[in-house]
Amino acid sequence: MRDQYKGKRCFIIGNGPSLRDTDMRKLRGEYTFGMNRIYLMFPELGFETSFFVSINDLVVEQSAADIQQLSMPKFIAWHAHRFLQPAENMFFLHTTYTGPKFARDITGRLWEGATVTYVALQVAYYLGFSEAILIGVDHSFATKGKPNTTVISEGDDPNHFNPAYFGKGFRWQLPDLDTSEVGYAMARAAYESDGRRVLDATIGGKLAIFPKVDYNTLFGK
User: Fold this and answer.
1) Phi, psi angles (nearest 5°) of residue 135
2) Which helix (H) or strand (E) holds 191?
3) C-alpha to C-alpha distance for 24 and 131, rounded to whole angstroms
4) Calpha distance 188→11 (Å, rounded)
5) Whole-angstrom distance, CA of residue 142 vs CA of residue 181
6) Which among 19, 12, 59 is positioned nearest to 163, based on CA atoms?
7) Beta 51-54 vs 31-35: how paired, if at all?
8) What is the side-by-side strand order in the sheet with 9-13?
């Protein structure tokens, strides 16, 4: 799979509320990365993402049946493999929580950078994409607290595109936005050192690491 998509562009879809203000229909026919519970949007979209990435144990454990059924190539953290059955379209990644790095080769160790989006950027790089465009990476959470703390959702989810994303009773970990910015900066440096680029087309996003671009200007008439 290495460099299979050399010279192509892809969209990495975060799951922030801004997706509700983003015309996702424009992505039909584009290469796309979906993450975690993005599949909740598939019925409305009318198509699935080209790739799927998930690394968080709590997400994989509670969404295992749904993830198992997804038909696209799936990249899953090895430490979550116990929740899934091996499949031809499932690729396990040796991700770690420590040792910051940007992995140009995903057959070795990858640093998670406190966000699945950072892992998706490393996968996209390995596959050869010359341009990765972020959407729905709002980099802002209504729910506050100590980073990485496990909490149980008490009602509708205000932090994602669907109120049922981490709905009532779902166990999840509070974000570590500072650590994720360390990863994003490393991703920008890695892409640019190889003549590639990461753009941020998130509508109203708070992330300030990547060059911003107007989502609607990325498509022909």
Assistant:
1) -135, 155
2) helix 177-193
3) 18
4) 15
5) 18
6) 19
7) parallel
8) 109-111, 90-96, 74-77, 51-54, 31-35, 9-13, 131-135, 197-200
Closest CA to 61 of 139, 155, 179, 150: 150
Domains of the chain and any CATH numbers: 9-143+177-218 (3.40.50)
Pairing between β-strand 31-35 and β-strand 9-13 as defined by DSSP bridges: parallel
pLDDT higher than 90, residue 14: yes
Helices 116-127 + 177-193 axis angle, to 10: 10
Average of per-residue pLDDT across 49-76: 98
pLDDT tens digits, one per residue of 95-142: 999 999 999 999 999 999 999 999 999 999 999 999 999 999 999 888
Q: What are the structure tokens assigned to 103, written together?
A: 């992995």
User: Which two three-digit tokens encode residue 9?
Assistant: 């562009």
State pTM to two decimals: 0.96
